[in-house]
Amino acid sequence: MIDLGISKLALIGAVALIVIGPEKLPRVARTVGMLLGKAQRYVNDVKSEVNRSMDLDELRKMKDTVQDAARDVEQSIHSGASDFEKQFSESGQTLSALAEPEPVPFPEYKHPRKNWRLKQGATPQWYKSRNGVRTKALSGAARVARFRPHKIN
């Protein structure tokens, strides 16, 4: 690569000042700087594209190895299943008989409030009526009417 030191840059600047002139030198320097910046961005883009393509190649290789491993596992499972089927066909049993297990009997449904008297300790209705326990609330007028003596005609 080109080795540019301070002395060489000063020599290039002096020649450019003499050839181009002092009034056009700033515009030319700005244009040269923009072109160098574009060149650097282009080189960086090319480098990143090369790195991406290398990474993509590595990913493709990894994908191929994973697919090969998956195929090997699938083949081993199929061979094991075929061996299993052969073993059971030789013994005279069918796979459908093994696949359907006997149904497990579930306990019968029991309503949770079946023995509510026992659970709540409720007093039976016949006991309340025999001993005169009030089971229903009566208003004052209903109570007076109930206990008023009846006229005999």
UniProtKB/TrEMBL annotation:
The Tat system comprises two distinct complexes: a TatABC complex, containing multiple copies of TatA, TatB and TatC subunits, and a separate TatA complex, containing only TatA subunits. Substrates initially bind to the TatABC complex, which probably triggers association of the separate TatA complex to form the active translocon. This is Sec-independent protein translocase protein TatB. It is found in: Cell membrane; Membrane. Belongs to the TatB family. Residues 89-111 are annotated as: Disordered. The gene is tatB. Its main location: membrane. GO terms for biological process: protein transport by the Tat complex. One of its GO terms (cellular component) is TAT protein transport complex. InterPro entries: TatA/B/E (IPR003369), TatB (IPR018448). GO terms for molecular function: protein transmembrane transporter activity.
